[in-house]
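Quick question, first post here. What does this chain look like in 3D?
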Amino acid sequence: MKPIWIVDDDHSIRFVLEKALAREGLAVRSFTNARDVLAALDDTAPQVLVSDIRMPGGSGLELLAKVKERLPGLPVIVMTAYSDLDSAVSSFQGGAFEYLPKPFDVTKAVELIRRALEESLREEVADVSQAQVPEMMGQAPAMQDVFRAIGRLSQSIVTVLITGESGTGKELVAHALHKHSPRASGPFVAINTAAIPKDLLESELFGHERGAFTGAQATRRGRFEQADGGSLFLDEIGDMPFELQTRLLRVLSDGQFYRVGGHNPLRANVRVIAATHQNLEERVKQGAFREDLYHRLNVIRLRLPALRERREDVPALTRFFLQKSARDLSVEAKRITEPALQRLMQFDFPGNVRQLENLCHWLTVMAPGQVIETKDLPTELLTAPSAARPAAGDVAEEANEGLLAAQPLAAVAPMSTGAAGLEGDAAASPWLADLERESRRLLQAGVPGVWGTLLRKFEAQLIHTALEISRGRRIEAAQKLGIGRNTITRKIQDLGLDT
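> Answer (accepted):
Ran it through. Tokens below.
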């Protein structure tokens, strides 16, 4: 963390603040005039700037303007012994974080600087979240193996079979295989064979001619045609109906297929990437999956480990998803303590990375403060027995491949961890029971946009109450809520609370 800069021509003020901040374990650098501050900014920058208004060699307001030009996100606290309305207004109009009249109570001054420090750290988190996120992330040996596997396959269009539990990011791996292949300029088309009714799946894959069946009012191209020149991702291939497996095998064998109701053969210039959470060898033994199709698909096999097999990646994934959820919800990104991360690393996550992502979404909405502590985690996670962490060597031996981080945000379905947390607190917090009744009413009525509607009401009520308690003082309300000054201003405008 960078030091706090104190700018004041009064030695006693500098001395008092230096000693008080040192007791708090905070690094401090002092200046006597604005000119030296601007020169120092050429080489480095502070975490927070605390500046007097009236100083020889340039006023604090002029310094504020010049600093904001260079570092618009830097919190600046303005001090003055000449407290008047014009100074206060000019400070805030210039972008000051807060206005501190002299003489001040040292304890309160340190508390104010700490709030500015937290704001600065949150701004840094927001800046990181806006930066280009890596395509993949993870330091576990299994993750490094998958990087190498995709690299080796980057010059090939061979068929790949991806296996792993639900929620381990199989589609993301398929995207990466396509992106880093000779077919990257072609389309990437995905279809979940388990999510489409049996009667429609054939038409979805191969298309149909007009009049081929009731409702076929026009000729339709199937996924194989749509993926021509690119890659076709067949998710949950293990659930494909047996009779359709024969047609798929024929396409993989000779590259030809017919639309439903069609008589002219079509050629498929498509690379097939398949995925399943099932044990295909066992499905073959049961007679539910064709052995010849299995061998056609199982040319190159990538196994994605469960999250419990790569626990060392949980902290990085958690921080990534907290930032992603904050962006999705247009709120400040929350931070998480090391003890809370350690507890997450001990949890088995039966839903894998998808469950961790949903958990981070839940924490972004439900955790009361900007810093997530162990007590803020859902009840189910806190009461789950701690898992023994496998050694890195065991993980490497057990799993060949890794897991990609940027799993698309699942529709926030009833997440086991979050749901348990709500149910466990409902008895102690009647408002949660009211929330459940209202959400159930809206969902059962089929009202669109329930998430956004309830979230706006929740935020509006919180901000309205905080403003009422602080008698309309926005900065104080933001501090009580644990959010930034800019955030509460934006929310007031977005929610129409200033009308």
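The domain at 159-298 is CATH 3.40.50.300 (Rossmann fold).
The chain has 22 helices and 14 strands.
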